[in-house]
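Retro notes (design track)

What went well: tokenization of the new backbones is finally stable.
What didn't: we kept losing track of which sequence belonged to which structure.
Fix going forward: every design gets posted as structure first, then sequence, in one message. First example under the new rule, 145 residues:
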């Protein structure tokens, strides 16, 4: 597995290299640890606080390991108009976790627009977007997990 230092070095001279490196670290390791933040800071000649600020700004730059199943439900206006709030409550019941919470197996997160506004409510299951989300679609997505 590629180390954070190696990932940072590969992105050192690229436009947007810090963010690219952090995203690649999450893709490779699942999250960005403090030690990995320090490696990025060193390679890009930034302070640890600057890198920490970037990591804390972007929701997708996780700082802890994600559970194996992460469901993100759109909470933006178009999906609310299409029944997103009711679906969110149903999903909380089905998954056994509240929006914004996680246990060791499942995380349920809010997201604000997945670009599927005309096919709402929308959700994303482990990075896979799902239009017309309902409990049946959620069950279908969980079937293979
Ligand atoms: S508002 Fe939900 S996908 Fe755009």
């Amino acid at each position: 597995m590629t180390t954070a230092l190696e990932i940072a070095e590969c992105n050192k001279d690229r436009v947007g290299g810090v963010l690219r490196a952090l995203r690649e670290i999450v893709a490779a390791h699942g999250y960005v640890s403090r030690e990995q933040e320090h490696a990025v800071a060193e390679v890009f000649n930034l302070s640890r606080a600057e890198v920490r600020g970037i990591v804390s700004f972007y929701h997708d730059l996780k700082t802890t390991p994600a559970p194996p199943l992460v469901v993100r439900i759109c909470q933006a206006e178009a999906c609310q108009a299409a029944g997103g709030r009711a679906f969110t409550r149903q999903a909380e019941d089905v998954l056994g976790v509240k929006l914004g919470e996680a246990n060791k197996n499942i995380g349920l997160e809010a997201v604000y627009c997945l670009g599927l506004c005309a096919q709402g409510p929308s959700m994303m299951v482990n990075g896979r977007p799902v239009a017309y989300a309902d409990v049946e679609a959620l069950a279908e997505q969980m079937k293979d997990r």
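Added context from the reviewer: Residues 4-57 form one domain.
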